[in-house]
Amino acid sequence: MPEAVLRHVPRVSPELLAAYADQEAATVYEAAGACGGMDHTIRPIAWGQRMVGSALTVRCHPADNLMLHAAIAIARPGDVIVADVGGLLDAGYWGEITTVAAMARGVVGLVINGGIRDRGPISELGFPIWSAAICMRATVKRTAGAINYPVVVGGVTVHPGDLVLGDDDGVVVVARERAAEVLATAKARASKEADVMERLRAGELTLDLLGFRRTLEGLGIHLRHET
Asked: Does residue 161 carry a pLDDT above 80?
């Protein structure tokens, strides 16, 4: 029996997405309480790419990309397609054709726990993708799945409309309801880190600035202050 496709779900506002544009994934992950960071299997297909948008979640049958085509058809500008393909890596669920189609709809990126192909042309187009594999093998288009229901990708449960941010360090997901709160914490954290950087450049040590010297001493390791 075919699973449902939800066309209308709440999304993060364009203004809030824009406010995340200069945030780093690792900083947002820490600001969210060390939550939402996808595991190392979800990697950028090209260095230097960045993405922030609202999750359009997709669940596909293994080696079948029919629901990705359906997701493109209902996508809105600012969406990030987040796809669970059932763990089968040896198929290219996404390629240059789907990239061009998605870009025309205003989709700003793809996160997928399967394979993609046409990495070169996609990179030239500047479309950001984080995937678990690169594979040229073809897919079929036969089986119904789900759109805009929760999926698990990279060890993180992603709900439709969640904020998705990606950079060279990977992908972090922030619950839509927490997006404003986490942004404020991330900005404060970034400001504090900038101050730490200045003090490090002036010669202070991470051991002292971050309190690690006390930890070492508690373990019986005593280091002299070097001049």
From this structure: yes
CA distance 117 to 115: 7
For 55-64, the pLDDT digits (tens) are: 999 999 999 9
Please give the domain boundaries of the chain with CATH numbers for all domains.
Answer: 14-177 (3.50.30.40), 184-218 (no CATH)
pTM of the model: 0.93
Cα 4 → chain centroid: 25
List beta partners, residue 140: 64
Q: How far apart are CA 52 and CA 18, in angstroms?
A: 8
In sequence order, which residues have a C-beta less than 8 Å from that of residue 40 and are 6 or more positions away? Answer: 170
With a cut of 60, say whether residue 2 has pLDDT above it: no
186: its two tokens? 């991330």
User: 90: which DSSP letter?
Assistant: S
| Tokens linked to 60 | 């596909």
Residue of 210, 205, 172, 198 lying closest to 31 (CA atoms)? 172
96-104 vs 66-74: helix axis angle to the nearest 10? 20
* Encoded tokens for 118: 């046409």
CA 220 from chain center: how many Å?
Answer: 40
